[in-house]
Amino acid sequence: MHDDSAVPRRARFRRGAAALTFVALTAGTALTGAPAATAAGSAALAGKACTPTEGFSGCRLFVPSEAKQGFDVPAGVTSLDVRAWGEGGAGNSMTSGGAGGFVAGTLKVSPGEALRLAVAGLNAGDALGGKGAERGGNSSGIRTSTGSALVIAGGGGGGGGDMAHGQAGAAGGESGQDASEAGRGGKGATGAKGGAGTGNGAAGADHAKGGAGGAGGAGRYAGGGGGAGYAGGGGGTGAETGSSTGNDPTTGSGGGGSSYAEPARVDDARFVVGSGYKAPEKTDPFWAGSDNPIDSGVAEGGVNAPGGPGRIVLQWRGLPVDRLAQVSGTDVTTQPGHDVKPLAVVARGKDGKPVADASVTYTIEDPDGLKPLFYLTGGPDDDETVVATDAQGRAQTPWINLSGSKEGSFTVRAQTLGASTAFTVRVKESPYVVSAAGGDKQKAEQGQDFADALLARVVKSGKTAPAGTEVEFRVEDTAKGAPRFEGEDRVVRVKTDDSGEATAPALTAGEGTGTYTVAASVGDAMTQFAVEVVPGDGSEEPGPGDESGSPSPSPTTDPSPAAEPSPSATGTAGTSTTGGTSTTGGTSTELGGGSLASTGAGGMGLVLAAAAALAAVGFAAFRFAPRMKLRSRDNA
């Protein structure tokens, strides 16, 4: 997670690492940070997945952006826990900006309702603070699809430009605070009424006129701008000369904007006002400080710095998760210095059906000091990330970086409200390298054979592996609706030919739809294939899943490090991690947003190359390849 992380983190930058080249398996989402739309076209929620507080199953965090932001209420959800901060006003060496406001409560909603969110930040927000010597903070807001205000967190006032100490007004409660310079500072907004400007400072806009902060007065030394809000704070006065006597400056700072919660829709509304430049609710788990000495933390007024950004967090109680089933990454073994492909779980309820929109927190436990880290987009690699389950209950980690040369093992723990599971990743030197040489990233309809055989290439000690080397192919999903070899076997063993290649028997799609992982391993070396099952009638609707009614996981479309080169028959060095899907999970760059923004959250549909037909010659080549089925190890 990067500097806007909603949970405590132990980030560690990789030193001396080469720049990563990220590739996407499929088309991207409409909003980064959300899981991609599934192949069936189901919408993903906007916002960045975050770890919910106790009692909640789903969580989304929104940060400033000039792009549009929207949120569609998940199915079955009738209330949202809301927390919103406005932006702090900017300050200088003599006058500090005012803190942004904080509003919290329980917002009554309808399943599927479209909300519009605007998070305060540079050039972004529900309304903009006034210009001046230092600008006032912008407001954060949640509105209905028609633009009616539901929750507004006001922005703090901006500092004046004179050479005497002052303090801009903090944003409200229901009323914003006045700036400290008596007779020269702007007034805070009162409810829906904008605060008065002082001297040549402009008044803040009333709610009916948009809630913008008033501009600071002009002059050689300008006044501070008022903070935006439900109504805007007034601008401070400006002056042609900068002389002042004692604590009586010749210019004034801006007043704070007001905050708001719609009484008919928000229960237990709570308004918290900061103290001067100090942000409100700094003990809240979703508040975040700055990771550098220049910028301000969330909603902090600037002290010789810009004000801190706003933030909105939405939490809800969805269907409870009874278990997390491992569907990709079980019993992974890799060599030192080789990245680990994404691990994945499917969240299921007590009825066996998938649970969508649940936040899954992945944490790396590293007792052997191997220093594995998740690759995270837009921030430093970290040992913790949060991923939301998609419409088919799947939550997939980013790739995991292993840059050291040590052997050992580490654990990746997946946890959500009500369930947890742990993956063990072994890191061990092996003379073998296994790579996906054919059949990766293809799709088939339910009940049909995949057109291309899964082909694994094996290298031993830099040379083509001897003929007869045994390769195990394993479908990692244990659900009855998952693909099976020749329609019945989850695990088979196949021997390599003279070119070091092992061809698996026909892989038949089951009733479940989505992406499945097949591991191919030789001793302690392995690689993975990703295959997709689509509905048999050619539609893009989710399939029925296994006999319990739970559809299988769908793909995500997040970037991952570029795939490593596959080894050749002549002994070219390769890796055991070629192929497979790629992801960044809920750890994305900042999200789209802006003033009164609204957008659909669905991503583009998955587009994968598929074979046109199963040729008779090709079919015979893999259908009757030498193989030995393994039944005892898995009861497969």
UniProtKB/TrEMBL annotation:
- Composition-biased stretches (Pro residues): 552-564
Keywords per UniProt: Membrane, Signal, Transmembrane, Transmembrane helix
Regions of compositional bias (Low complexity) in chain numbering: 241-251, 565-590
Output the InterPro entries linked to this UniProt entry.
Answer: Gly_rich_dom, Ig-like_fold
Domain (Glycine-rich): residue spans on this chain: 71-259
Family annotation (Pfam families): Gly_rich_2
What this protein is called in its record is Glycine-rich domain-containing protein
Species source reads Streptomyces hawaiiensis
At the highest ranks, the source species' classification is: Bacteria, Bacillati, Actinomycetota, Actinomycetes, Kitasatosporales
